[in-house]
Design a protein that fits this description.
The protein folds into two domains: 79 residues, Ribosomal protein L30/S12 (60s Ribosomal Protein L30, Chain: A, 2-Layer Sandwich); 161 residues, Alpha/beta knot. The chain contains ten helices and ten strands. It starts with a helix and ends with a helix. The strands form two sheets. The chain has a six-stranded parallel beta sheet with strand order 7-6-5-9-8-10, sandwiched between helices. The protein has a four-stranded mixed beta sheet with strand order 1-4-2-3. By secondary structure, it is an alpha/beta fold. The radius of gyration is 19 Å and the shape is elongated.
């Protein structure tokens, strides 16, 4: 099955063995390597090894899927998906807050898979004064063309870090004095929380919400009151409400 994250990224794909190797050697920001079933031989093996060295995600796909993603190009069994924007380090986000002489304000996206949602979150985050966004390397929308379009230009001004393990990164943030609050429908009313502190908000997956381990690492779980017949909001809408709650606490 083709995810939205991949289906809508065709115009930031490089295909073919030589072009892919050169893209990797150049140090370009690469989201993932796509290898067709049965193509892992010869120069493809060397490309895979290079990706392992750089920590680039590697995904095996069917030849027909690779045909579709590359628009029928002569991909030779291999392609890379290129990020539309360079990722930063989490320390760069904290440094920006320090540079502005502000308490850190970070959004952590725990497996947000819809690129439209991630783009909308980035757009609101930029407007609300967020210093940066953290996303996981796996099971997450990445900085593709769809995300950039949904962010409506905000991606140019927002720092986005991509990490291997969200739970571990939360622990590291807490060690640096950042309070971490997870958004979940079983949490405490968000209006009773004072966000005028160094803080990070965790927004969970569209269907599953925050992962159990990630929730356990949070300092607190907060929720939005729901008095209608549905019991949840779109991830980007919930994120927007909570971001402006933080902004209000700090004004």
């Amino acid at each position: 099955m083709i995810s939205n994250n991949e289906k809508e990224s065709g115009n930031n794909i490089i295909a073919g063995r030589n072009p892919v190797m050169e893209a990797i050697r150049s140090g370009r920001e690469i989201d993932r390597l796509l290898v067709a079933h049965g193509a892992a031989n010869g120069s493809v093996t060397a490309i895979i090894a290079k990706c392992h060295e750089r920590g680039i995600l590697i995904k095996e796909v069917s030849p027909s899927k690779l045909d579709y993603l590359t628009g029928g190009a002569n991909h030779q069994g291999i392609a890379v998906m290129i990020a539309t924007q360079e990722y930063c380090q989490v320390d760069d986000i904290l440094a920006l807050a320090e540079e502005r002489k502000e308490k850190p304000f970070i959004i952590i996206c725990d497996e947000i898979e819809d690129p439209h949602n991630l783009g909308a979150i980035i757009r609101t985050a930029e407007a609300a004064g967020v210093h940066g966004i953290i996303i996981p390397k796996r099971r997450s929308a990445s900085l593709n063309v769809t995300v950039a379009k949904a962010a409506s230009g905000a991606l140019e001004y927002m720092k986005v870090a991509r990490v291997t393990n969200i739970a571990n990164e939360i622990e590291r943030l807490k060690e640096k004095g950042v309070w971490v609050f997870g958004a979940d429908m079983d949490g405490d009313d968000y209006t009773k929380t004072d966000f005028d502190i160094p803080c990070a908000l965790v927004i969970g997956n569209e269907g599953r919400g925050i992962g159990p381990l990630v929730a356990k690492k949070c300092d607190g779980i907060i929720s939005l009151p729901m008095i209608g017949k549905i019991n949840s909001l779109n991830a980007s809408v919930a994120a927007g409400i909570l971001m402006y709650a933080v902004l209000k606490s700090r004004s």
